[in-house]
Amino acid sequence: MIFGASGDLTQRKLFPALYALAYRNLLPPQFGVVGVARSDMTLDEFRERMQAAVEEHARDEFRENVWEQLADGLRYVRADLADAEDDEGIVAALNDLDAARGTGGNRVYYLAVPPSAIEPIVLQLGRRRATGGWTRVIVEKPFGHDLESARQLNEVVRSYFDESEIFRIDHYLGKETVQNMLVLRFGNGIFEPIWNRQFVDHVQITVSESLGIEGRASFYEQAGAIRDIVQNHMLQLVALTAMEPPIDFDADSVRNEKVKVLRAVHTPGPKHVVRGQYGPGYIEGDEVPGYREEPGVTPDSMTETYVAAKLYVDNWRWADTPFYIRTGKRLPRRETTIAIQFKRAPHPPFELDAGEELRPNVLLVHVQPDEGVSLAISAKVPGQGMTIRPVHMDFLYGGAFRVGLPEAYERLILDCMLGDATLFTRADEVEEQWAIVDAMVAPWKRDRPHFPNYAAGTWAPAAADELLQRDGRSWRGR
Amino acid sequence: MLENVTIRDVERELNGLRDASTEPGQPPRLRTSVMTHVAWVPERWAEAAHGVMAELGERHPSRVILLFPLPDDPRDGIDAEVDYRCFVRGGLEREVCSEVISLRLCGSRARAPASIVQPLLVSDLPVFLRWRGDLPFGSDELWQLADVADRLVVDSREWAEPEQAFARLPELCGRVHVSDIAWARIRPWREAVAAMWPAVAEAGAIRVAGPKAEGLLLCRWLGTRLGRELQLEHEPAGEVELVEVDGRPAVARLEPKSPADLLSDQLEIFGRDQIYEETVRSFS
Predict the structure, then answer these.
(1) B160-218: pLDDT as tens digits
(2) Which among B15, B115, B125 has CB closest to A282?
(3) Are residues B138 and B188 in the same domain?
(4) Which of A333, A351, A366 is the best substitution to test chain B (most B C-beta atoms within 10 A)?
(5) Is residue A99 classed exposed, middle or buried when 0-12, 13-18 and 19+ CB atoms within 10 A define those classes?
(6) Fewest C-beta atoms under 10 Å: which of A45, A273, A305, B110?
(7) What is the ipTM of this complex?
């Protein structure tokens, strides 16, 4: 059952993901979907809309027989979850599916709704839990808007559902390259011995988008970059990069290690956090408006569209090794990368000219685009003399494996149906993430930076550069 | 040519070509990049640029981004052609492939080229910018692209007014390392003049039959080395044919180099050429 079935997420991600699973025969024949939304729609209209979404967004060709199989199990209920009477329609649709397809009372409730709608839905669902079969609840991010609200939401959800039934989704964890981070680190013998403060100079994590807010002003004005990206995706990437090897790939083993990292993150002081907001500029040669000129944004908005920070993970492995993170909208390009920059060679015996181009080794994990891993090394240019230049050893997913990468939602929806929560966020993880974010934003109430402070299409405010320059470093890229 | 595309479309096209280049059951071809090579190619230089690129790919596997500005085009958009070129290299069983992205920047899209190039740069590798024709000092396009490049490669022979352009070139040298293909062309002549030491120490005049830019560079180079101004007597010619210092001819060992050879040499230089920069500063 998808709550928020008429929304953008359902059309762009959830149905294309379900179609991809059906296409690969990964859904049981009894599978059905009840769409729930406030929009007035007939079942036929809902089917047509979802078919159009699949045709537009699915990664596979559209096959009538695959779609028919999925469409047969569709139901649609118009409901306002604040209204208890609408409950009856939902129960009827579920009973109908149980009878028609033999779903055995097994339920996945996907809450693709704004944060404010989560609590009332959970209350309704909790009060009328199915007696037979299993129940799982997927909750979309953001889970709360600060530590207190996240704790409260956790309390509500856990008063009706066991932690093993709650799947807090952060779709980044479903990305192949993010999962590959674990394989890269723990499946190869060569990296772990140097994956620590002795060999790593610093880590840079970039989640940059060239897009603006794409009509999501009401959400973004509340969230900003810190709640939209840092609280979830960014801190998950930090945790995966810094975590200790888990004893196995069991959900709790992995999540225990991630929580330890989050607990060890030293609260960054105000000098270690930079925020920005984009002004007008150019993206792909096209003139784009500043954030404050976007429809639905107040002209004096102080919402940040960019955050950079220097974090320290205070543990034995990472003491004094900075993790520089940055995320923003309307940056020059779309890129999610984890860059592990190793320390320089201690004493290069080359002449000054040759040494000029001697750059430190960088291991780059490209989460998107160009999914893969690159190692930047220095090599001698063939010929007389000693000229050195950086070269890349590339592993590209697209080149190495002749299969398309599954979308994150495919993996995560399937994992949820199978009851595997490894790639979902646990309650204590979410709370630790919020604790870090709350500490970062606390000083923001006291000062009003001059916004906008970066032009769209540039790599953000000068203060973000200074954050690294103070340490004798610079951001990757340009 | 794909019309009116976004950068995402270009990336998708590249991925498709990359996937298609691998035959089932075979290991993937090596996608090799040692740099991103950006070329700014106004319309009149398009043919020459294509010719050079055709020869260059094998020597410098890289991602090449050719920018063809068409500011007067009534359309406002980007047209793209994406090519995945594979070469057999000695000593390797597999082919080495590099990527060539040709972008026609129509209408206002020609005004902010850096915002188009930046999403396509290969991360953490040097960026070489080949600027064809005159350098439009003070224009946004030039400054923007210079700011994303590690090295700017020009050919002062292509400039309409080389003396004025040299005078302003130091503005760019402060932002990016600059290579001049004309400077590379006169290297054998500079060596020949240097070989005239010690007689050349008292030189007062230099006579050059060749392109204007090369004549100016030779004269100012010798002047900065000797620490005084020299008289230049210049005779126009397509190539440097004659260099005389105080009436004594310099004998250069010339080896013919194609435009691709000359550019190729520049793509292997990383550091600052201080002697070139000093020579150019003497025009200011």
Answers:
(1) 999 999 999 999 988 899 999 999 999 999 999 999 999 999 999 999 999 999 999 99
(2) B115
(3) no
(4) A333
(5) exposed
(6) A45
(7) 0.76
